[in-house]
Amino acid sequence: MKLTTFALLTTLTTPLAFANDVNSSTAATLTPETSTAVDDTKNETPSFPESFKPQGEAILGLQSLESQEQAIQEEHWSGLPFLGQKAREMGYQLPIPLGFNVYYNKQEVGYVAQDAFKLGLKGQLSQPTKNPNKPDRIIDIDQNIEIPADQISITGEDESVQLKVDAWILPFWNVYGLVGYTKGYKDIAMDLSAMGIPQPLVLPIEYEAYNVGIGQVLAGQIEVIPGMHPFIFTAVTAFTNSWTTTTDSTIQTYIGSFRTGQRYAVPGGQLAVLVGYNYQLINQNITGSYSFDLPDGYLDVDYDVALKSQETSNMSVSMVYDFGPKQEWNMFLEYGFLNWNQVIFSIGRRF
């Protein structure tokens, strides 16, 4: 089993866009055997390893030898990635090191309270008396209570739009920054029967948030069986911090993922199919107030609760399509399943 370096784009939570052009968004690698053939036998027909089978003008997604020689000589105006010249001299084809992507992300996540749900209650309720000839009894409510964490149920949904700018610092290491906007809600079901409210109340919390984030990607490729498409793999870590505008709330999201798959030459570009494991931990502290209009009165609620995502592990399937004259454009689609539903769509360009 042979391990070779492989460079590719990143998305918000996943690597993106595998391409084969000399100026494309990402690049598959040349093995050392291929590199030697390019550098040392310019007047001879190079002998490729059996694992590189021709597919039209491409070789497992790689361009022709002439294009590869050009890729080895070219250097990006930014000087990135570091050690890039050494990699080119070894015969490795490098990606365009700078790029941006725009993402749409939607997910439905269950939450649990990290500690007791603190409520400040003020209101008024009317209760009928046993004697129908007497007026209803008026109950004034003015007290603070705590509901145990295991006695509340929390569900939520988020939609976000993100802008990512990334750079390849080393041939196998990519870093990126994020800015974005999120709109979401949390529904918190609580039992206040002890307060004389018979039916459970659902506290609806709607919010908008702006976020910043950072992330990194390590990428590589493994040739498992000679003659078979190599398996590409990526490992991603990221962190985002969000500030809401409609509640006194902050949201921290920790992300990790590992994906593996293969890519194929298709009309117009390259298509990669990946399966992956995703880790996501969301911490959110929410404070605010809400007023309930009840059939027999009203209730004003001040709340303070710390939430976290109920599940942290998920599975995903994704596809990446590179296209354009130099395959500098890329599209990404991912569906997450198992413990929560998630859809991510992205389009980006290298420059």
Number of domains: 1
Write down the overall mean pLDDT. Answer: 80
Number of strands: 18
Described by strand count, sense and barrel closure, the largest sheet is: 14 strands, antiparallel
Q: Quick one: overall form?
A: elongated
Number of helices: 3
User: What is the helix/strand order?
Assistant: EEEHEEHHEEEEEEEEEEEEE
Uncertain spans: 1-72
Helix-strand makeup class: mainly beta
Characterize the structure shown:
The protein has one domain (2-114, 155-289, 306-350). A hairpin with a 2-residue loop joins strand 4 (54-55) and strand 5 (58-59). It has helices at residues 32-40, 65-73, 84-89; strands at 2-5, 9-10, 15-16, 54-55, 58-59, 98-113, 117-127, 137-147, 153-170, 173-190, 201-223, 231-244, 248-266, 269-294, 297-309, 313-323, 329-337, 341-350. It is built from 3 helices and 18 strands. The strands form 3 sheets. Strands 1, 6, 7, 8, 9, 10, 11, 12, 13, 14, 15, 16, 17 and 18 form a 14-stranded antiparallel beta sheet that branches. Strands 2-3 form a two-stranded antiparallel sheet. It has 351 residues and is mainly beta.
List keywords for this structure.
14-stranded antiparallel beta sheet; mainly beta; two-stranded antiparallel sheet; 351 residues; 3 helices; 18 strands
Short description:
With 351 residues, the chain is mostly beta strands.
